[in-house]
Amino acid sequence: MARKRQMKLSAYLVGTGMHASSWRLEEADPGASIDIEYYSKLAQTAERGKFDMAFLADSLAINEQSHPNILNRFEPITLIAALAGATSRIGLVATASTSYIEPFNLARQFMSVDRISKGRAGWNIVTTRDLSGNTARNFGADTHFELEHRYRRADEFVDVVRGLWDSWEDDAFVFDKARGRFFDPAKLHRIRHKGEFFAVEGPLNIARSPQGHPVLVQAGNSESGQAFAARVGEVIFAIKYNFEDARAYYKEFKEKVAAAGRNPGDVYVLQGISPVIGASEEEAKAKQKRIEAFLPEETIIGFLADYFKEVDFSRFNPETTAQEAGLNTLRAANPDYGKHQPVIARENPTLRELYSLIIGSFSGDHLVGTPEKIANTLEQWFLEGAADGFMLMAPVLPEGLDQFVNQVVPLLQERELFRTEYEGRTLREHIGLPVPVNRNSAGSLTR
Amino acid sequence: MARKRQMKLSAYLVGTGMHASSWRLEEADPGASIDIEYYSKLAQTAERGKFDMAFLADSLAINEQSHPNILNRFEPITLIAALAGATSRIGLVATASTSYIEPFNLARQFMSVDRISKGRAGWNIVTTRDLSGNTARNFGADTHFELEHRYRRADEFVDVVRGLWDSWEDDAFVFDKARGRFFDPAKLHRIRHKGEFFAVEGPLNIARSPQGHPVLVQAGNSESGQAFAARVGEVIFAIKYNFEDARAYYKEFKEKVAAAGRNPGDVYVLQGISPVIGASEEEAKAKQKRIEAFLPEETIIGFLADYFKEVDFSRFNPETTAQEAGLNTLRAANPDYGKHQPVIARENPTLRELYSLIIGSFSGDHLVGTPEKIANTLEQWFLEGAADGFMLMAPVLPEGLDQFVNQVVPLLQERELFRTEYEGRTLREHIGLPVPVNRNSAGSLTR
Fold it and tell me: Is residue B408 situated within a structural domain?
């Protein structure tokens, strides 16, 4: 009998939590984002909860308005290399950009971490959105690439990286001591790539890992981003704020995967969730209020003024509704804004709520409440076609992860919606992804 | 009373050892260069021996003739991030090139590892020698930069990196929860660098570590390389094959440091050594013979033919002397060759010996013998002005490191030439280097 389909869980690890005010809570350690013991404990907690993976986001520029948790933090590739030693089963996903790093260096570092972790690495592929040009100016450019250009470059980048990962066939190393033959030269391959953006000869100086190569994670949201994700992503990270939007997105995205000639069942969609968990509904709501209260008015208004540019926010306060501020009829200059428009039109959030929505720590009513309520929401989303699993973006860490592991995971396990033990050792085994065929081994069969 | 001056020790960690045949020994694990437990054990052994640091070399290209230990190996920055968790005191130095990586990425990854290791990281700055163009072709270029260009770029690169490391003053983070003030914006600095090679605005999204920033290690050997090392290096890695050469180099190099306006006492010269240790002189010599015997004739002759290009080596065998082959009168096209010419002129090595010399696993008579003999050699070099310490490039690993730690280190400790316990926690504390002043803090005093 086939095992029941189970959901995938990923823990988004970020300092004191997703909420911009999380560092201000009495119990918060504001130095968390630079504390390796703290991150090790988070990863160990997620592993205790049998999570498929821990996820590290990234940005390549900051300014005075940046979220406290990202002002001073570890670089994610080095961080997952360190976390590999603090854990033994959980997958470790680091974000890295195709716009500001050489493909040879990226291919190599990710395969190195995949080896260090014995096949537990993942690469969250981003192209870097950089409206302000802050990132470009850290890398010798005045303005960032346009969206189309970025994804064309990302396509070529990923092709080069995958080619480099296949430099050595899996049985290339013969280790024949007697004859002094370390490897079989016929099984070492150069990609000799010359494309629009890159010229890379190869070979890579590291061979494939126990899972073949790192899992490719993608969170593109624009039209181009989704098309790219449908072509190359193996795990997809999306954020939708209600069931209908999530289900519509899930259906459409899987169709895009099929249209790209891939099996939709081989691509796993994780919906981002920021639950606020309490012993009772009231306790959860009070918790949410407590942290929202720490958001200073000038942070909210300053952020939105910067985000919308052409609107004069000085007339508004955090309790002004989007409708009162005229945001529901605004055409968005910011491509990011489009994804929020349906929610704004339907729910008419206050500016305080809108702020949380945009910075990604919004917790809708269906995710504020008891562990049972949270488990019910996840069960519905999972069983009714809105998700293959979830990215836990806890508003407050470590509390939000501890609670989820201690109180929600057991409910999901009771309902046989989530594993009670790791079945395998690699991230691909956890997710259920096949080991990618080495393009050179496959080729040699037909030659 | 001032403590007696003590030597610095660094362990060069590379798979089965420096010797090209080390993987062929019966006891060797040819998969060592890709085994994280193996590397963790090496680093732990060096730490048990109270070594100042472990050192990871690098290259950004391979070909069919490359040393088996570098064909398939970890990327060093990710490797030291992993080793940080397997050790608690020893410094961890990774090699990275100023020619093929963005300064923002490098500054960030090294500071991240310096944070992960709590102030134990070092950066071995290389500009990448690439006569074949193999490296350039992995990074979109057909030919590599010339020497002069490389070091001009390296100067600017290091300046940018150090500037980025100083983005945050040490007391920038005020963590004032009550007032919602995470940091003091006056203590966040952008470098706004626009130079010949790089334009980098900053700031970096990670603050300085407990040791300020990673220790800067350099091994430049050419005229330009030594000048660069004298300007920026804090620990210098040189390889000289006898006492006179080592002492002459040491004296000249320290003069260059003084000429560059720095205190020669703040720059530590480590001489590379490849000792072969035996219970008796005979045992050590037999050991050396045993491993040399594994070097196939075609490896030696093929390597030298490639190295010298204009010489026809097909007429020679490994026992031909350099004089018989006419190498002692040859003008070197390979800039690397210059450093070997005095040794070749004086010692007239066989081609087998010359091969070992060039690939860096040559063990002169003074380093083949009992632990006492090795300790005597190091004592002489250290006390008579040839070295501030040593880089142990063991021909065979783990044996060469185990033996050195178990048998040579205790002798050095008895003679009070080496520490019996770590005095501090950071690599700078081990070496005796000051925490670098933050350029912005210093500036603010005079504003």
Answer: yes
CA distances for B133 relative to A189, B100, B146, B154, B401, angstroms: 17, 13, 11, 19, 34
Q: List the single residue in B with minimal CA-CA distance to A60.
A: B205
Helix (H) or strand (E) holding B153, with range, is: helix B147-165
pLDDT in tens, B96-106: 999 999 999 99
- Give the structural domain span for B80: 8-275+364-446
Asked if residue B3 is part of any domain, the answer here is: no
Q: Could you tell me the end-to-end alpha-carbon distance of chain B, in angstroms, rounded to an integer? A: 39
CATH of the domain at A25: 3.20.20.30
Looking at CA atoms only, how far is residue A140 from chain B in angstroms?
4
Domain count for chain A, please give it: 2
Q: Judging by DSSP bridges, how do beta strands A53-56 and A8-12 pair with one another?
A: parallel
Residue to mutate among A26, A66, A92, A138, with most B CBs inside 10 A, is: A138
pLDDT in tens, B329-366: 776 556 667 777 777 888 888 888 888 778 766 778 89
How many Å lie between the alpha carbon of B317 and the closest alpha carbon of chain A? Answer: 18
Of A344, A362, A380, the last residue of a domain is: A362
- pLDDT value for A447: 33
List, for chain A, all residue ranges whose pLDDT scores fall below the cut of 70: 1-3, 331-336, 360-361, 442-447
d(CA A195, CA A103): 13
* Structural domain includes residue A1: no
Which value does ipTM take for this structure?
A: 0.94
For residue B77, give the chain A residue with the closest CA: A78
Nearest-CB residue to B205 (from A30, A62, A81): A62
Last residue of a domain, one of A341, A362, A383: A362
Phi–psi pair at A341, nearest 5 degrees: -60, -45
Which of A82, A141, A180 is facing B296, going by the closest CB pair? A180
pLDDT tens, residue by residue, A48-64: 999 999 999 999 999 88
> How many Cβ pairs closer than 8 A exist between chain A and B?
194
Select the residue of A75, A81, A175 nearest B30 (Cβ to Cβ). Answer: A175
